[in-house]
Design goal:
Layout (H helix, E strand, L loop, with lengths): L20 H14 L10 E2 L14 E3 L4 E7 L4 E6 L4 E6 L15 E4 L5 E7 L4 E6 L4 E6 L16 E4 L4 E7 L4 E6 L4 E6 L15 E6 L4 E7 L4 E6 L4 E6 L14 E5 L4 E7 L4 E6 L4 E6 L16 E4 L4 E7 L4 E6 L4 E6 L13 E5 L4 E7 L4 E6 L4 E6 L12
Length: 410
């Protein structure tokens, strides 16, 4: 059963053995508070034991706000933005001075307001240096100016941002910079909002009140979103039906809405919660939390143009425990999967384990903080950042020594 990244997840009756939603969240936080949390401070760094029965986290951690989940990276400023669900703000990490090999800047505590409650996902648009923070409980997206709110320049971090009002219970989103379109999954509304960013960004917010230009009806509980830019395809995980909705971004974007009512489906594992696209192999990877596996299928035969194999069951790699967030490191063609229930990150290579080839799907395991949720890769420093919801921290894994081919540093 998925334990959602936000406080007020709707109850899913098909798995009645679990606690009600609010109780699950409270119970999870109590377990985190009772875990063996030895904080050995090095500036803002901590080495936190994840749980009494689990090995101690083997990678440095940064203290952030309460219940951190979604993260995004601004490549222009090398700033990592972390959504703090219970503090209603974003923590900012300087990727240049706080990474897997340099920790001098890990002690700084910078936050940005989101003018909403329970910020979960966030998306960076490098073309306008805008950060879009998704406020799950408010049903809004905050438009934050990255030029005046990053890890170095914080002058605008306390300014109330403009807001885009979207669907019910928004969770995560993804951007197509070519069409200037943001897609956000609305978990409580069973929809995906299509948002026009051309006049709603850090330089121009005049179009924010009318920014939602389309709505896609997805499967039950749409959760995570990924965009394959070359094929202009939008992939959305449906946690309620164990499928991925496939949207044609060519006909459903900021300027064209004709295709927003036409979608395809791909069947994956149980409780799909995370999704990422590997451009090298044109593979879509899906982290399936309930079945604790990683589904993978080829985008070449299931995208905006070719849907010939959409609707077939994806290949599933059974690995991890409570698979949730997932990210691809393009430098090493490695896939990192957060195992929420095991306090670990699963690492495997994409060259021989993808949507077409499954000849070598062996994996390594890295121990991180308590209840890891999301993963983001900073390629300039080859650092993998992992948010730990119950540790109120972010772990840093060295991608040079812990990847799909080298596991010595895992």
């Amino acid at each position: 059963m998925s334990v959602i990244d936000r406080p007020h997840r709707p109850h899913r009756p098909r798995m009645p053995q679990l606690l009600p939603t609010r109780s699950r969240r409270t119970h999870a936080r109590r377990l985190g508070a009772l875990s063996l949390g030895l904080l050995a401070a090095l500036g803002g760094l901590s080495a936190t034991a994840s749980a009494a029965s689990a090995p101690q986290a083997g990678h440095p951690q940064i203290h952030v706000g309460g219940f951190p989940t979604g993260m995004s990276l601004d490549p222009a400023t090398d700033t990592v933005y972390v959504g703090n669900g219970t503090d209603n703000n974003l923590s900012l990490i300087n990727g240049r001075t706080c990474n897997s090999v340099a920790v001098s800047g890990c002690g700084q505590h910078i936050v940005a307001v989101t003018a909403g409650t329970d910020p979960i996902g966030s998306v960076v648009d490098p073309s306008t240096n805008t950060i879009y923070a998704i406020n799950a409980s408010s049903g809004t997206v905050a438009v934050i100016q990255g030029g005046t709110c990053d890890a170095v320049n914080t002058t605008g971090c306390t300014n109330p941002p403009a807001l885009i009002h979207i669907g019910a219970g928004p969770e995560f989103g993804a951007l197509n910079p070519t069409t200037h379109t943001l897609y956000v999954a609305n978990l409580d509304g069973n929809t995906v909002s299509v948002i026009d960013l051309r006049h709603c960004n850090a330089q121009n917010v005049t179009g924010c009140p009318q920014a939602v230009v389309g709505v896609v009806h997805s499967g039950p509980y749409p959760f995570a979103v990924a965009v394959d830019v070359p094929s202009n395809t939008v992939y959305v995980t449906n946690d309620g039906t164990d499928t991925v909705t496939v949207i044609n971004g060519r006909t459903c974007n900021a300027t064209t809405h004709a295709g927003c009512s036409h979608t395809s489906r791909e069947f994956v594992g149980l409780g799909p919660g995370g999704i990422a696209v590997d451009q090298r192999t044109n593979t879509v990877y899906v982290a399936d939390e309930t079945s604790s596996d990683v589904s993978m299928f080829s985008g070449a035969t299931c995208d905006s143009v070719n849907t010939s194999r959409c609707g077939l069951h994806a290949y599933r790699l059974v690995a991890g425990n409570g698979d949730r967030g997932i990210a691809v490191d393009d430098l090493t063609d490695s896939i990192y999967v957060a195992n929420t229930s095991a306090n670990t990150v699963l690492v495997f290579g994409g060259r021989a384990c993808n949507g077409v080839v499954h000849t070598d799907c062996h994996f390594a395991v890295a121990h991180v903080g308590s209840s890891p949720r999301r993963v983001v890769v900073d390629e300039p420093t080859d650092t993998i950042y992992v948010s730990n919801a119950n540790s109120d921290s972010v772990s840093m894994i060295n991608g040079r020594t812990c990847n799909g081919t080298v596991s010595a540093g895992c």
